[in-house]
Request: fold
Amino acid sequence: MAMNYGSDKKSAVQAKFDAQKIAFAPVMFQATRALRDLDILKCVNEAPEGITIAEVARQLELQEYGVKVLLEAGLSLELVRVENDRFFLTKTGWHILNDALTRVNMDFTNDVNYLGMFYLTESVKTGKPEGLKVFGDWNTVYEGLSELPHTAMKSWFAFDHYYSDQAFPEVIPILFRNKPAHILDVGGNTGKFALKCVEYDPHVNVTILDLPGQLRKAEENIKNAGSEKRIDLYPIDLLDHSRPIPGNPDAIWMSQFLDCFSQKDILELLRRSKESMHRGSELFILETYWDKQKYEASTYCLHATSLYFTNIANGCSQMYHSDDLLNLIKRSGLKVQEIIENIGISHTLIICKTQQ
Ligand SMILES: C[S@@+](CC[C@H](N)C(=O)[O-])C[C@H]1O[C@@H](n2cnc3c(N)ncnc32)[C@H](O)[C@@H]1O
Reply:
């Protein structure tokens, strides 16, 4: 299917204004972060009668000058409004202060992406994640994940888990519909999902496939939960397409995993998965597709997240359009059995088998 999205109906004045928002976006992003992290928004929120610049400065022991420039920027950002010199929080300001999704996205932008994004143009030219060099000398972020600076690692995991955690309670009963005895959790990361599986079903065994660095963390979590006997760890670089995916699982689980790879590598991963499956095996692909979103805000977040893949993660993957994935599934020879949309905040679950 051909791609269709967007329109061009705004007035020239609005278009010019929107262009200026983009021109100053990094500056205004940092102003917002300062308003949040210096507790200025909190201070305004806690003043139902409104609050002046001088009062905010006094309460927070900040210079009036700094509070003034930030609150004035906050007016253009529509985070606050002012009436007779007294500032009030707006609905957008409330979201910056209190909304978990916004916080996770802002921290991910600041702590993982911000410095590296300076090299985005270079990444597009070279096909390499040039921004990753601000953290270390790795080919992909996944190689360096367990060694990222503390704040970057914390924000990376908070971002990753925020989205998948909300989907897990909805998908587990679907995964267990056919009572799988053995599940492969491919890209199982910290073992969070595998632990949920063994908790949900007392008979299931899970094998987590991931890079050695990630599995060290998973091992610790699994030991702490006392689940070593039912969860195996299988360290593997899945980009080595000569290595088979270990055989005969009843279910293969891939959550927020295929978006970490180029289309060429996804095709190989799907083919290798198919080779490891028996007639009754099911492959579950949980992903966020930018064309499947109910809200424009979700599509916006996914388009922005794609650039993290371009510039920080690996230089070759993205948050895909669902047609991209469906085409690759078809080319791999796998058959789509079912597509379940609107899972968690923004996920789609595609269930495949080796034959119809
Ligand atoms: C975005 S995380 C998803 C984690 C988890 N499945 C979830 O839904 O929250 C992707 C995972 O794929 C793993 N991964 C990426 N490239 C890999 C590779 N070449 N070989 C093995 N695992 C890889 C990463 O280490 C990471 O744990």
